[in-house]
Specification:
With 391 residues, this protein is α+β, with helices and mostly antiparallel strands. Helix content is 35%, strand content 13%. The protein contains 15 helices and eleven strands. The protein is globular and about 50 Å long. The relative contact order is 0.16. The N terminus and C terminus are likely disordered.
Length: 391
């Protein structure tokens, strides 16, 4: 779809046009068949993808994907390859939140998210949607057994497209880091807490309603703009230029070691999630499902002194290392993050009693989600029925 003749591209704001704008993006055209996905232990859906002639230089902070870098370049950049609807990325939220908190006060660090489009809106529809949904629900259940992340009591369907959620998440970045983080979180919760994936423009915007500090009207305009579409298309292409180290990854103890996935056109893309840590001197990569210590190592090998080393075991979970000084009292953590899972409670809070006064519990099929009372007043899980995507 193109704008009307004589109409500036930046004025394409009708929500019904958002999905149409992705037509012709040169992105995936086919979903893996059902049997293939039963044998592949990864959360991603492969397809035919656009490629570029020149690979990105992962050691350059001025290379592709850093077009929006600040005027004063960061000493260290962390690139998070992700998708709002990926179950492994959802399960990695505790360690990613912890790492972001540990680095938040250091202005030498820049964290950038790349949205990789896990589900494409023009993938071939499943021949049996009910069977597809049942298979995917079991798949998410298996993943949550490893990550201990909440999962929905009932999944209504497999997401039709990652484009709407990715466009909304990318558009939210213009409203600041805190708003962008909370918007992305709501989009993840749409599928893994509510069971209603935010896979249409309407449902993606409805899922983030009430996020504090969010200008909802501006978000709707920006998410439907060609400028944001171009940024997500660039993300899609960047994700298909992986560094060499992820082409062959040893499994170790991880149920999702994160080796790059070969696409149907013979190219490769990052597994989700993957963190790429880089400075002007070099890079380190931590693909797939990893413990917090591996992310600490990736950072400290390149830039010593940015993170404190893990120390003694956490009192409530001896298998977890003690938190760095970023640990917060439960009430403070819930005020800051608005929602917390039990794994996040272990990673982000100190050992004082839980839950904090006023916390609202939302039960899922794999443990609770805890909401700050102000969040509970506007969250789709407690403020009314979840948004249902029009079919």
């Amino acid at each position: 779809m193109t704008p009307e003749p004589g109409r500036p591209a930046s004025e394409v704001t009708d929500l019904t046009q958002l999905t149409d704008l992705t037509d012709g993006a040169g992105v995936s055209k086919g979903r893996e068949d059902h049997e293939d996905r039963n044998t592949r232990k990864d959360c991603e859906v492969a397809g035919d993808h656009e490629t570029t002639d020149a690979p990105a230089d992962p050691n350059s902070l001025d290379g592709p994907g850093t077009r929006d870098a600040p005027d004063s370049p960061a000493a260290l950049e962390i690139v998070e390859y992700t998708d709002p609807l990926c179950p492994w990325a959802w399960g990695s939220e505790p360690v990613f939140r912890r790492l972001r908190a540990a680095l938040a006060a250091d202005d030498r660090v820049r964290w950038r998210r790349v949205y990789c489009i896990l589900f494409d809106h023009d993938d071939d529809p499943a021949p049996d949607p009910a069977a597809e949904t049942a298979w995917y629900a079991r798949y998410v259940e298996d993943i949550s057994a490893h990550t201990h992340a909440p999962r929905a009591l009932r999944l209504s369907r497999v997401a039709a497209s990652s484009w709407p959620a990715s466009l909304v998440a990318k558009a939210a970045e213009a409203q600041g880091t805190e708003v962008a983080d909370r918007v992305l979180r709501r989009l993840r919760e749409s599928v893994f807490v509510l069971g209603e994936p935010a896979d249409t423009p309407e449902s993606a915007l409805a899922a983030v309603a009430g996020v504090p500090g969010l200008d909802a009207d501006r978000l709707a305009v920006d998410a439907a703009s060609p400028e944001v579409l171009a940024r997500v298309r660039a993300d899609h292409a960047e994700a298909r230029r992986p560094v060499a180290e992820v082409l062959s990854v040893q499994g170790g103890d991880s149920p999702h070691p994160g080796a790059a996935k070969e696409t149907l056109d013979g190219q490769h893309r990052y597994a989700l999630p993957t963190l790429l840590v880089r400075t002007a001197a070099g890079h380190r990569v931590a693909p797939g499902w990893r413990p917090y210590e591996e992310y600490v190592s990736a950072v400290t090998e390149l830039s010593r002194g940015l993170l404190p080393a893990p120390t003694a075991p956490h009192p409530e979970s001896p298998a977890q290392p003690a938190l760095a000084p970023t640990a917060l009292p439960p009430a403070t953590a819930l005020t800051h993050y608005r929602t917390l899972t039990d794994p996040e409670r272990t990673h982000l809070t100190d050992a004082t009693p839980w839950p904090p006064a006023g916390a609202v519990r939302v039960d899922t099929a794999n443990g609770p989600l805890w909401l700050h009372p102000d969040e509970a007043a506007v969250h789709p899980a407690t403020a009314g029925p979840p948004p249902v995507a029009p079919r």
